[in-house]
Amino acid sequence: MFFSGDPSTRKRVDLGGRSSKERDRKNLLEQTRVERNRRLWHRQQNSAALKIQKCFRGRKDVRLEKSRLREQFYKTYGKYCQNVDRNSFCVNSDFLRQFLYFFKADNIDDFLVLVQICRLLQQFVHEDGDVVKHFAGVDYSSTGGLVNYRVKQLVYSCICALHQNRNQLKDQLLLSPEELDASAVPLLEVIVLLIDPKLPWSCKIVGYLFQNNALGLLREIILTGKDNAENYFPIGKGSSLERLLMVVICHIGQKPCVCSDINPRYSFASQIITIPFVWHLFPNLRQVFAAEGMSQHYIHHMATFGQNLINSLPKDMSNEVPSYACMLGNILETSGVALSQPACSFDMAVDLAAVTTFLMEALPSVRTSDNRESSMILDDDMIEDEAAAEVALDKKLEQQIYNAINPRFLLHLTNILFREISSVNALEYGPDDREVAAVGAACGFLYVTFNKLPMERIMTVLAYRTELVPMLWNFMKRCHENKKWSSLSEWLSYLSGDAPGWLLPLAVFCPVYKHMLMIVDNEEFYEQERPLSLKDIRSLIIILRQALWQLLWVNHTTNPNLLKSASASSASKRQSVEAIQQRVSIVVSELLSQLQDWNNRRQFTSPSDFHADGVNDFFISQAVTENTRANEILKQAPFLIPFTSRVKIFSSQLAAVRQRHGSQAGFTRNRFRIKRDRILEDAYNQMSQLSEDNLRGLIRVTFVNEFGVEEAGIDGGGIFKDFMENITRAAFDVQYGLFKETADHLLYPNPGSGMIHEQHFQFFHFLGTLLAKAMFEGILVDIPFATFFLSKLKQKYNYLNDLPSLDPELYRHLIFLKHYDGDISDLELYFVIVNNEYGEQTEEELLPGGRNLRVTNDNVITFIHLVANHRLNFQIRQQSSHFLRGFQQLIQKDWIDMFNEHELQLLISGSLESLDVDDLRQHTNYAGGYHSDHYVIEMFWEILKGFSLENRKKFLKFVTGCSRGPLLGFRYLEPLFCIQRAAGTASEEALDRLPTSATCMNLLKLPPYQSKEQLETKLLYAINADAGFDLS
Q1: Do 749 and 879 meet the contact criterion of CB atoms below 8 Å apart?
Q2: In whole angstroms, what is the distance from residue 340 CA to residue 171 CA?
Q3: pLDDT tens for residues 730-777?
Q4: Which of 591, 503, 487 is nearest to 547 (CA)?
Q5: Residue of 250, 443, 479, 1000 marked catalytic
Q6: What is the pLDDT of residue 850?
Q7: What ranges does the record list as Basic and acidic residues composition bias (predicted)?
Q8: 583 pLDDT exceeds 60?
Q9: Fewer CB in a 10 Å sphere around the end CB: N or C, the chain?
Q10: What separation, in Å, do the N-terminal and C-terminal C-alpha atoms of the chain show?
Q11: Plot region of 536 (φ>0 → left; ψ -120 to 50 → alpha; else → beta)
């Protein structure tokens, strides 16, 4: 400090208000506490040192005593037990007492002595057959405690010796009992001898082994022997190790066994059944485990642990071979045998479904087929990270699980679960507890199976060989009628208690019923009403619609990114709940879409039954905007929205694109010069040269007549509409050879088009572009396509029920085969099909080697669907592919996905209802002195109303350039239809004129004819003159 000039010393003041004495007191107390703790720590240190020293001295003394006793033992009984007789095992002898005291499993001399002891014991028992007498003498009841202790120690010592020396004995662990020269066999055989269930101490010994994790040691012994015996093939009675396990497995705590409850971590199920492919090593053990009472006990025991079962299993051998997956594979492999037994109980099936569900939930997906829905479920970063970290299962283990869940297993499981439940229970009664348990067990197991395993063969057996569909429908119908859904949350670990009761049943019912509808024929569905009546299907549609609306709009799942703030366990559970909700929304959407297709083929319910009740103007306004919830619903479940609303959305999307490209184009236009007698060739040559952007822009057309003279008229849009209608009529004419007609005069690509046109694929691409241009400009064209071809525009697959529209005779033959009662192999059919195009016959195999593969009762369903696939998909695949490429140049896939095939045809061609004269009259303007009550106008509407449908279409083409009216009615005609007076006076010269039109303005120029007959004659002449635009 620098001198401040003030010589006085200032008193220091504590601004905290504390005196120095108080600070000193606190420091003293803290110092005292530290010293006290230091003294305590020193005392504890000294005490610990004394204990360590005491323990060390004790252990040292024990080692010395054991060494001394070992030397004494060798002197008394010989190093190789030369002096041992049958009395040496008796309770009064020191032989076992001394040996068990000093025995060490890692001491090679002790191990050899133990092997010799086991050989001697086997020999003595074999000679007189009484094990108890060798250990207890004549009175086991008085010496039982000591005898039990010695037998426990001897058996446990044998297991420890095998475990300690397992690597040295790895070649001997799976040998048969006859191989007594091998050191491992006598040890195993003595264990089998001493834990025989007939012996009075059996349960006590086995219980002791369980408590001391002897099965954990046996597990490691088995794994060592298994790794060294890849080519081991068990024969005869099996190995000594298998005999040991067959004795242990019988100790299940039920009479006559009196074993006490054991820690599940040390149980037979946890330690042995988790060994990979354990039944392949021990086939006799598999038969014992598969016995009715045995498997039921173990599976019930596992089921009691529920979702905590996996936590009690031993450490995984590797990431590719987890313990839970090994347990699952082994359980499934034996369950088929247990379920096939007539006495298999309902409770056994429920427990089995529960255990396999919990284990399968933990599996990584082992699907070998394309999982198209997987990419649609929860794209959260956290899930992607988990998927990236997920390790695939070992291929052999994966195959074991996949093979075990076979049609036979599924058939037995579902039949046992549902055999005591009637499918016709009265609606007034809700499901009882037993039915809820059956539905919960079946749905929990099947839902997880669908997500983990390939579904192809699973679905077929569930759909056609079980009563799953009618049973689940009966359950859901009664829950719906009683407005009370039973909670099934206990059957899936991640399904919360407040989850809707319909969630899990729908997750299983929808994909199975959807698969069934792909294979069922029209007679079964409409006439026989199998598997569900049409009345039930109407009720089902309502349930599905309400559930889907609830999932997608009312209770839509929150943003998955919010999960990142939650704990790991709760986040994982939340993800799984959202995953099942998303999965259910997808399968319900697919099933409703398929039911709508069936309704379009032959209507059995009102189309409005598919529409959600909550669709309003706000929803429609949101649906137009990308990335909104309403827009997502429009893409996933468009049928929830009325057709007219979707058409408005589609029209607005097209208008937005047209406006964007029209403003960018400025004054540049594509102009076509088309000869009417070469309309297709000229259009192909000129339109094929346009880029995608130019195709979206305006195209103006000038027609040239047969004399090479340009027709009158300036194209303001009307000539282009006339051009589009004429070229589509010419291009899709069956005489041209690119398309063929069905019996109902519906068009589909000609499979033999390549035999007529060398460049047929380029023509199909052009025709796709042509149709897309018509739709893009809002021009309706009268082209009736076959439904199965329209499916190709939506990139959908066609099935058997689409075949009648193509080839009714072939369909009838296939249905005959499907319901044939005799032996189909007698019909001498093979997996080949004969194509006949323009008199040229070719034979194609439906499967590799199909010429030598006969159709039988077992594979007839496969044959039927391969034939249908060949005709509906394979034959026209290339033509459809090129047509689709051209179509998608202008029309995006998500625009078309808003509509089903029936609705898509309406978008292309409109409907006859769009030629409503009254609707046209309500939306007509008048000019030049005409008005709605003018006598000429009154005559005109009377005449038009009396026209035939064909003449109405010609009239509409005459005034608008298109023979079809707007899809939603004439109020959407742009501009509105207008009738203009063509002559100022009613002179003879004026009245002798024909009506003319300006199609670009939708304008009819009508002279003021004096009589109805004159007006009708002139109008009919004008619309039938086919004079192009010379009358304009």
Answers
A1: yes
A2: 37
A3: 899 999 999 999 988 999 999 999 988 889 999 999 999 999 999 998
A4: 503
A5: 1000
A6: 92
A7: 8-22
A8: yes
A9: N
A10: 112
A11: alpha
Distance CA 777, CA 679 (A): 19
Q: What pLDDT, on the 0 to 100 scale, is given for residue 494?
A: 60
| Neighbour count for residue 255 (Cβ, 10 Å) | 5
Query: Contact at 8 Å (CB) between 961 and 999?
Result: yes
Determine the angle formed by the axes of helices 184-194 and 240-248, rounding to 10 degrees: 20
Question: Is residue 559's pLDDT more than 50?
Answer: no
Q: Which two tokens stand for residue 810?
A: 């072939």
C-alpha pair distances (Å), 89 with each of 69, 94, 121, 149, 351: 18, 8, 8, 13, 46
1000 is catalytic: yes
Q: Which is it for strands 977-981 and 924-927: parallel, antiparallel or unpaired?
A: parallel
CA distance 449 to 458: 9
Contact by Cβ (8 Å): 205, 152: yes
**Partner residues linked to 287 by β-bridges:** none
Q: Are 502 and 485 in contact (CB under 8 A)?
A: yes
List the beta bridge partners of residue 1006.
981
Q: Are 704 and 675 in contact (CB under 8 A)?
A: yes
Q: How far apart are alpha carbons 269 and 467 in whole angstroms?
A: 33
Distance CA 175, CA 237 (A): 11
Instruction: Evaluate whether 285 touches 279 at the Cβ level (below 8 Å).
Output: yes
Provide the percentage of residues in the chain whose pLDDT is more than 90. 47
Phi and psi of 85, rounded to 5°?
-125, -175
Does a cis peptide bond (omega within 30 degrees of 0) precede residue 256? yes
Task: For 835, list phi and psi in degrees, rounded to 5.
Answer: -95, 140
Q: What are phi and psi of 757, to 5 degrees?
A: -120, 125
Separation between Cα atoms, residue 633 and residue 623, nearest integer Å? 8
Q: Which amino acid is residue 441, in one-letter code? A: A
Residue carrying structure tokens 């359980």: 331
Q: How far apart are CA 957 and CA 826, in angstroms?
A: 59
> CA-CA distance, 949 to 813, in Å (whole number)?
38
Task: Name the token pair of 853.
Answer: 């593969």
pLDDT bucket at 428, cuts 50 / 70 / 90: low
Name the H helices within 747-829.
Answer: 760-776, 787-793, 808-818
Q: How far is CA 789 from CA 779, 792, 802, 897, in A?
A: 20, 5, 10, 15
Q: For residue 10, what are the β-bridge partners?
A: none
Q: Is the pLDDT of residue 987 over 70?
A: no
Read off the pLDDT of each residue in 632-659 and give the average, rounded to a whole number: 91
Half-sphere exposure of 227 (CA within 13 A, CB side): 10
